[in-house]
Amino acid sequence: MTSSHRVLLIGGTSEIGLAIVSALKLAAGTEVILAGRDTQRLESAGKTLTSAAPGLRVSVARYDAAVVASHQAFADEVCAAGVPDLVIAAAGVLIPQPVVASDVPRAATMITTNFTGHVTTLLAFAGPMRARGSGTIVVLSSVAAVRPRKFNSVYGAAKAGLDAFARGLADELHGTGVGVLLVRPGFVTGRMTEGMDPAPLATTPAGVGAAVAAALDPVTLRAKRSGVVWVPAPLAGLATAMRMVPRPIWRKMER
Description:
Elements lengths: L5 E5 L4 H9 L7 E6 L2 H14 L4 E6 L8 H10 L5 E4 L7 H6 L1 H29 L2 E6 L12 H21 L4 E8 L19 H11 L11 E5 L3 H10 L2 H6 L3
Helix pairs in contact: 1-7, 3-5, 5-6
C-alpha cells in the first residue's frame, strides 16, 4: 500500500517530533519533510527514519524558527510542491530561567522560537490548507502553559502564548476541513531536559509520540477528535488542581 501524503515536521531534529513521526507508522510512499537549521543533523534523522521504515520518502529543508520574516517564503516553497496533509510544530528550546533572567537576547530567542515563530509559520500553512479544505496541524504545547511558575516564567509564558494561539486557530479553522490537535505533555525526559530532576507524571518522547499517533487516523492523518491531548492522560486532573492553588502558595512552590 502506498500513500501520497506529505508530512512536515517543523523542528526536524526534535526528539518528540521524530517520535511522533515514528509512532504514526506512515505508509510506504509518504513524503516526510524535516525542517530545521542543522542540515547534517536533519539528514542523520532522516536516515534513522528510513532505516526503520524504508518506504518513506524523506527530504530536508532549511528552516529557522527565529527568522520570522522567512516563514511565508518557506511555506510558499513547501506548498508549491504540494500542501502538507500533516504539519507537526515541534520546534523549541528550553533555556534555564537563571540564564534568560540575566541574558535578555537569549530570552528573546526562546520566546521567538517557542511562540512567535510558530504563529508566523502556522499562519502561513493554515491558509493553503484551508483553501484545499483538509489537513491537520499538531501543536506541541506543555503543561507549563497552564500556569507558569517562577522557575520557568519565560518558557511558561511562551508556551502559554502558543497554547492560546493554537486554541484560537482551532476555532478559526473549525468547519474548514482543517483540524488542530493541541498536545500538552508534562515533563518529558529527554535531550532537552537532560540533568533535570523529573517532575510528577513525567513522560518520554516515545510516550508523546504514541499519544499523538493514537489521536490521529492512521490512514487519513486527520485528528479523530478536536481538542487537547494530555500526556500522560492523568495530567489533565493535575492541571485542574494547579489552577486552583492560591497564588501565595503557588509562589512558594519550587516545582
